[in-house]
């Protein structure tokens, strides 16, 4: 079976609301750009999570989820940045992030200081067409995939199933794990895996929020968290909800509290990345 090649799956990026943060506030030291009070976790509980590390350090710049034996789902802005002008779109790849970087799995401590970790060299990367569309914005299609050299076969490296239904998870509690910033008072990233719980709001409540913020609610979901929230270093990590006893990824955190249009993401699409390239994702 080929994952994402045969079926077009809907993955919905999510936002955090009702937690005292306001859209666009990224001032250094502001609580809105910090993940705070996340609880410590063990990779055994989130074996589908990987941290993305630059080749010259042990601090994550983004995260991702294992969606197939050699593939990781992450945020497109972890791969490239986009600037839109009246007559063109300027795409800047982030070689300091991706080229020579690794996806680290099997890790409770992301710096590798305790227990065994498994590193996987990133050899290919691709982002969604909508992310670089002249008519879009950098919130649209903010999804990317990474192809790694070494398959995910370590003890605590397993595939997470992706949600294929728009309303899956609404009205339920979900979790997001990650190694991003976790203190209000410093820029320190967490060495140990942490998670926080969120409530996936019903559609009616979500629509009210979008109406108040002048966003189009189509293809979006909202989550609420009173004390904890994602932040720097948490981009690309999965939002997971347990449905009928099975963990499903229903979204991925990509830019703090910003919103994204829902994205039908199939790897049969052709994307522009150093020329035309089509990637398939074997199961």
TrEMBL record:
GO molecular-function terms, A-Z: serine-type endopeptidase activity
Signal peptide: 1-21
Family matches, as Gene3D superfamilies: Trypsin-like serine proteases (2.40.10.10)
InterPro entries per the UniProt record, alphabetical: Peptidase_S1, Peptidase_S1_PA, Peptidase_S1_PA_chymotrypsin, Peptidase_S1A, Trypsin_dom, TRYPSIN_HIS
Chain ranges of the Peptidase S1 domain: 35-251
Single GO BP term: proteolysis
Assigned keywords, A-Z: Disulfide bond, Hydrolase, Protease, Serine protease, Signal
PANTHER family per record: AT26814P-RELATED, POLYSERASE-RELATED
Family the UniProt entry places it in: Belongs to the peptidase S1 family.
The name this protein goes by in its record: Peptidase S1 domain-containing protein
Species per Swiss-Prot/TrEMBL record: Ignelater luminosus (Cucubano)
């Amino acid at each position: 079976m080929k994952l994402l090649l045969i079926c077009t799956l809907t993955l919905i990026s999510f936002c955090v609301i009702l937690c005292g943060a306001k859209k666009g506030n990224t001032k250094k030291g502001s609580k809105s750009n910090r993940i705070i009070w996340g609880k410590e976790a063990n990779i055994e509980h989130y074996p589908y999570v990987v941290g993305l590390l630059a080749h010259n350090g042990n601090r994550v710049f983004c995260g991702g989820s294992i969606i197939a034996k050699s593939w990781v789902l992450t945020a497109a802005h972890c791969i490239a940045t986009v600037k839109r002008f009246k007559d063109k779109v300027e795409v800047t790849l982030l070689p300091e992030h991706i080229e020579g970087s690794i996806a680290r799995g099997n890790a409770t401590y992301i710096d590798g200081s305790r227990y065994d970790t498994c590193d996987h060299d990133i050899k290919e990367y691709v982002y969604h067409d909508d992310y670089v569309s002249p008519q879009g914005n950098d919130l649209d299609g903010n999804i990317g995939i990474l192809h790694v050299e070494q398959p995910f076969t370590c003890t605590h490296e397993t595939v997470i199933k992706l949600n294929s239904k728009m309303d899956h998870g609404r009205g339920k509690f979900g979790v997001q794990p990650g190694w991003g910033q976790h203190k209000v008072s410093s820029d320190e990233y967490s060495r140990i895996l942490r998670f926080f719980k969120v409530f996936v709001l019903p559609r009616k409540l979500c629509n009210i929020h979008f109406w108040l913020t002048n966003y189009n609610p189509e293809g979006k979901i909202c989550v609420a968290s009173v004390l904890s929230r994602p932040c720097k270093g948490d981009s690309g990590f999965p939002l997971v909800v347990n449905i009928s006893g099975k963990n499903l990824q229903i979204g991925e955190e990509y830019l703090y509290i910003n919103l994204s249009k829902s994205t039908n993401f199939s790897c049969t699409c052709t994307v522009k990345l150093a020329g035309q390239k089509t990637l398939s994702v074997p199961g």
